[in-house]
Amino acid sequence: MFKSTVMTMNINNKLIASILELPEAPILVERLNKLLAEEQKKRLHFYEHISEQEKAEFINGEVIVHSPVVKEHNEVNGNLYKIIDTYVVDHDLGFVGIEKILIRLTRNDYEPDLCFFKSAQSAKFTKGQKFFPVPDLVIEVSLKETEKRDRGIKFDDYQKHQVEEYWIINPQEEFVEQYHLKQGKYELLVKATTGEINSFAIKGLTIPIPVIFDKKLTNKFLKTM
After folding, report:
1. Range with the lowest mean pLDDT among 10-19, 122-131, 182-191?
2. Is the pLDDT of residue 29 over 90?
3. Straight-line distance from the first to the last Cα atom of the chain, in angstroms, rounded to the nearest whole number
4. Taking the model in full, what pTM does it have?
5. In 3D, which of 153, 138, 41, 162 has the Cα closest to residue 108?
6. For a surface tag, which of 41, 108, 141, 151 has the fewest beta carbons within 10 Å of its beta carbon?
7. Which CATH number is correct for 66-224, 3.40.605.10, 3.30.70.580, 3.90.1570.10, 3.10.180.10?
């Protein structure tokens, strides 16, 4: 993780140095500060007007409102929540959030399909809490309209904020990708339609991959947990 932090600092220093070489650097910085101030106003407006009835995210200054989900997305998300929440509650490991949990990162706000917070963080959560910190595990059930963000800005943002584990699940082609943070960078450990997925953030949790996509298999699996 230290190596990754140094690498990020070096990249930032090079970017700053390249700006400082420009005669118009003060003008650029002034303009950037103005744009970021305007963006912050939009972000505060987003906080004030977001409702529990809609799923919306604030990404790079824009409010992204999601369309209704398709059947397979809903089923996969439901199956995973049943399994993960049951395991986490039974073993007193923390808190599992589904869909409407708004996590606040440095610049952006996301509502992952599923996220998990270990006890160290979740013990501090309060009734009525609306905003949440960086999770330990994020799962995105990815469709065509969200895939670019799931693999792009969200992937980068989760990685930079040191989310320990990230799953991308394709409910239509029925495969799972599991990424684990190693020295500050995501390493792809699993990309499969069969076999098992072993969580790092949720100690001891192992899920057969086909179970994720089949409600009957989910219900049978729950009886064995």
Report:
1. 10-19
2. no
3. 34
4. 0.86
5. 153
6. 41
7. 3.90.1570.10
